[in-house]
Amino acid sequence: VYPTPLYEEEYLSNLLQEDSLFYIIVDKNDIVSAASAEIDYVYHNAELTDCATLPAYRKYGFMKHLLNALEEELKQRHIFCAYTIARALSFGMNAAFHQLGYIYTGRLTNNCYIYKSLEDMNVWVKDLSKSKG
């Protein structure tokens, strides 16, 4: 069920204690773009999630910068597989993952409640052990 309550301090605090990374871009003391990685150290993988950019800032490609930065940090932590589920109707997010070399592996039909309706999610995967950096 989305959206997650990222505005709740207790929720964020718990995420940060559970091996999650958050990267943000700030403009004039306001967070304008954010993304996170939920890390599984046992199996050396991470889900890239919580990707959001304010509409007025979407034309600057901030999400690709955040995702690249998260990938570099994940590689430093010996995480070799990154994956995500992106809203099928979100052209921008799907394009960003494609442009960053993620492989589309299928669609999960009626997978997530987002606000008040079920949505299809596209699954994207990247082998970080083979990527530059």
The overall pLDDT average reads: 90
If you compute it from the alpha carbons, what radius of gyration comes out, rounded to the nearest whole angstrom? 15 Å
Number of domains: 1
CATH topology: Aminopeptidase
Distance linking N and C termini:
34 Å
Shape: globular
Question: Per DSSP, what share of the residues sits in E-state strands of 2 or more residues?
Answer: 35-45%
Task: Characterise this structure.
The chain is of the alpha+beta class. The protein has one domain (9-130): Gcn5-related N-acetyltransferase (GNAT) (Aminopeptidase). The chain is built from 3 helices and 6 strands, in the order H-E-E-E-H-E-H-E-E. It has helices spanning 9-17, 62-76, 91-99; strands spanning 20-27, 30-40, 45-53, 81-87, 103-114, 117-127. The protein has a 6-stranded mixed sheet with strand order 1-2-3-4-6-5, sandwiched between helices. The chain is globular, with a radius of gyration of 15 Å. It starts with 8 loop residues before the first helix and ends in a 6-residue tail after the last strand. The model has no long low-confidence stretch (mean pLDDT 90).
Please summarize what this structure is.
By secondary structure, the chain is an alpha+beta fold. It is 25% helix and 44% strand.
Throw out a few tags for this protein.
Aminopeptidase; 44% strand; alpha+beta
How are the SSEs ordered, and which strands pair?
Layout lengths: L8 H9 L2 E8 L2 E11 L4 E9 L8 H15 L4 E7 L3 H9 L3 E12 L2 E11 L6
Parallel strand pairs: 3-4
Antiparallel strand pairs: 1-2, 2-3, 4-6, 5-6
